Amino acid sequence: MTTPRTTPLYDLHRRLGARMVDFAGWSLPVQFPTGTLAEHAQARTQAALFDVSHMAQVSLHGDQAAALERLVPADIKNLPQGRQRYTCFLNETGGIIDDLMVARTPGRLLLVLNAARTETDLACLATGGLDHEHHTDRALLALQGPKSASIMARLAPQAAALPFLGVTTCPIAGIPDCWVSRSGYTGEDGFEISVPAANAEALAEKLLAEPEAAPAGLAARDTLRLEAGLCLYGNDIDMLTSPIEAGLAWTIPKRRREALDFPGAITIHDHLVHGPTRLRVGIRPQGRTPARAGTDIAAPDDTQAGTITSGTVSPTLGAPIAMGYVRRDLATEGAPLVLLVRGQRLPALQAPLPFVPHRFAAR
Amino acid sequence: MAETRYTKDHEWVRLEDDGTLTIGITDHAQDALGDIVFVELPAVDRDVVEGETVATVESTKAANDVFAPLGGRIAEINENVVDDPGLINRDPTGEGWFWRMEPADEDAFETLLDDEAYEAYLETL
What we know:
The structure holds two protein chains of two kinds.
Chain A (H helix, E strand, L loop, with lengths): L4 E2 L3 H6 L3 E5 L2 E6 L4 H10 L1 E5 L4 E6 L3 H5 L13 E8 L5 E10 L2 E6 L4 H10 L4 E3 L3 E7 L3 H8 L1 H4 L6 E6 L2 E7 L8 E7 H12 L4 E3 L2 H10 L26 H6 L5 H10 L3 E8 L10 E3 L5 E11 L4 E9 L8 E6 L2 E8 L12
Parallel strand pairs in A: 1-3, 4-14
Antiparallel strand pairs in A: 2-3, 4-10, 5-8, 5-9, 6-7, 7-8, 10-13, 11-12, 12-13, 15-18, 15-20, 16-17, 16-19, 17-18, 19-20
Chain B lengths: L2 E4 L4 E5 L5 E5 L1 H7 L2 E5 L6 E2 L4 E7 L3 E5 L4 E6 L1 H5 L2 H5 L8 E5 L11 H9 L2
């Protein structure tokens, strides 16, 4: 067991009384003294600050859009300057190697990768002949919530003016060289801010000094993203899941569907034309019992239907929510399922995603 | 004054005047779990053996088993923690109790950790 790596905000987390956990090889705050439910509410009603420095930031310098398109099914060539987009690295069978954000900023493409997949992703880039720079000297902060924009309006008007999925470089509260995007993974309006490691703590303290802001940990981040119907790599998507099964067909534009010039294109084409054998769906258990990842799902006729991949009690709804994969013939909004939890057969209904409406900034 | 003893699974067990046992999770346990959002309690009159899983307590993060600290019969359950699981966080050794049971063996209580032994055990974690 190797010692987990620490982020540039480690000392600050300890001072704030965070409970630290090992996550994907990183020591990160799972919660602060206020607790997960309060942190969740903070992000839904005010603004919550998350340390997401474990995620890798990678630059592809020069014009490498065509090379990147050989690894992902998104439109990268026509990604406008100052814009960001969600996509997946795919393997030869159309499985998801990782999900990532790609931003175009002057002179390069900027990628944000999952911590647990970084090594694999970097190997993919290298194998694909892409020249890349892994920014290990920068932190990544996520300010999420309906009050994020008013905080940013005071500290960085240029960032506050960004549309949803816009990116820019500007100082924040006088701290230079911040790469800011209007994005996040909570379903709320918000910003992700890349900052040089040496200035990360100063920036976090400036943001936390704002009256609407408070720190939040990984546990709240997970309940927020699940309410927002967003996939967690390793739970809801993995090497054996295609983007079509995962409900991510929207990330593959017409040009790429026609050209079929990305890894696993044959499988993706088959899934698009004939439908995959299973689909990711939202699930609302009808009682109070949450169904966790790994829970077996049965059809009303008692045949096997699938498996839960994420499940919790929604702090916003005060009721259990889950996502999972079910046979395509069963995947219908409102249709019943049976969840097998601790030997009990719990009734559930398929529900539209997200469970809590997204409230992103205007595009 | 009723005596309270403990298990290494961070449960407290209080010996009541009538010989029944009241069981809950310790302050250490509720703090480690974080905000509790769901509790499942055993059926009244169920016979349980020591170490058997009889309840489930879930935080936003995960589900955790709660074990029978001793064998016996479930006499009563605390519906208040089912309706308001946060009660366990707020008052783990009082209003946040889980269930009462009649022990199969009256002397078995003495085998549990006393205050001092539990405190010493926490120091080793």
